[in-house]
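name: query_chain
kind: protein
chains: 1
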Amino acid sequence: MTDLRRENVQSYPRPPALEPVPQRIIIRFGGVLVADTRRALRVLETHHAPTYYLPPEDVHATLRPAPGNSFCEWKGVARYFDVLSGSATARRAAWAYDQPTARFAALAGQVAFYAALMDEAWVGDMRVIPQPGNFYGGWVTPNLEGQIKGAPGTQHW
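structure:
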């Protein structure tokens, strides 16, 4: 069993922190293994569930560029991907920063996935619950405490 230490999302820093993840990360979609890595990074930001970024070499699904992008004041411009796995497709289910800000340079090319659009995602042996709402891509695990941003009425604080 993975021992994830208790963390309060309200004590995460702003500006956010970037750190390596010692646990194995597994993602499945369409009955197929989408990603499996022990080399993930995570971003920790006040009131957010951690967002996990995986090396593209450890992603086994096809990532097809999707229209649109978004801007993060901390990381820069993100582009999106449809995830094709087996016979299933999840639209705009993953994103990456090709040229992140200097503070987040280690994220260049790393891929993050919306847990809500995958069949399952795991941090160690802890199954992930998607961050509330449909904008943020954080992964909620049972060790997290505090109010997590994303539910109605919380997006702008």
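note: The longest strand covers residues 62-72.
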